[in-house]
Amino acid sequence: MPVFTSEQKQVSLSEAAAIVKDGMTIAVGGGLSWREPMALLRELLRQGRRDLHIIGTAHGVDVDMLCGAGAIGIIEESYVGFEQDFGMAPNFRRACQDGSTKIYDTCCHTLLQQLRAAEYGVPFLPVRSVQGTDFLHLHAEYKTMTCPFTGMPLVLVPALAPDVAIIHAQYGDAHGNLKILPPLVADMLFIRASKHVIATVDRLVSTEELQALEPNVPYFWVESVTEVPYGAHPTSCYPFYSYDRQHLTEYYHAASAGKETFTHEYLDHYVYQPTSHDEYLQRIGGAARCQVLESWKDGDDAWRSLFTTPEGAIA
């Protein structure tokens, strides 16, 4: 893992996205509907990135959106879907069915072990979790051996060092120190195994303020940091805002209607046409919508109302 010692890491969203090049292996932080780096992914699409190799543990709208935009060459994931309300991820499913994207099906534990191998600087690590499954047929690179100490059969999986980890955190400072609140998902392993780490944060604070929050990612692991309020939208980033069920309903209907409809009704309106993240926020409803998403903390009735009509029910 490289070390980045610059004392000033703050850059614009477009500058951060420029670190990612076509064909790179990208570890996407967060998971499912929680703290995914959506603003940075939208910027990657605006910059026209293609043929990305995306890895992750369990993801949703982030990977599905990249599939719908044709930006992915390879997906290496254990799950891509919309668990809470919607089920399957339409763009991801089409990419699997039409062969436009190579799918390297994996399991969470195996992927984490591959990341640990990269972190430790060893070429492989053993696992027991995939024995008796078809994963061995899907991954010709996996090897088997008999443990010389116990005589047990083991599967050896190669190290996986992403080119770039893209992380969204709650807090950070201009030096690149971060505070990621749990659940951390696989973000810490992504950070330690990757060659570059670019981070967006909901709030950029002074180093003194961040120290009081007890940061869990030191500055020398991070290449760049960008303050992007609501940078995880439409996924959640507690304690700031809940996931936007209403917006995800709109997304899901557009994605389910087919590639052309998804491009015209969603990508054009929310990704390609907005010239900035601020303009994107205006298109989702501006300050009024943000205030609604922040209302989850106002009590049980408030957060329940976010997931029932009229704020977010599935039509």
What would your notes on this structure say?
By secondary structure, the protein is of the alpha/beta class. Among the domains are: 13-105 and 161-227, Glutaconate Coenzyme A-transferase, CATH 3.40.1080.10; 127-158, no CATH class. Helices cover 35% and strands 19% of the residues. It has 13 helices and 14 strands. The strands form three sheets. Strands 1, 2, 4, 7, 11, 12, 13 and 14 form an eight-stranded mixed beta sheet that branches. It has a three-stranded mixed beta sheet with strand order 3-5-6. A three-stranded antiparallel beta sheet has the order 8-10-9, covered by helices on one side. It is globular and about 65 Å long. The model has no long low-confidence stretch (mean pLDDT 94).
Task: Provide the residue-averaged pLDDT.
Answer: 94
- Oligomer description: single chain
- Give the overall shape, derived from the CA principal axes: globular
Please provide the ordered H/E string of secondary-structure elements: HEHEEHEEEHEHEHEEEEHEHEHHHHH
**Name of the CATH class of the domain at 13-105 and 161-227:** Alpha Beta
Estimated radius of gyration? 20 Å
Report the biggest beta sheet as strand number plus sense, adding barrel if it closes. Answer: 8 strands, mixed
Helix content: 25-40%
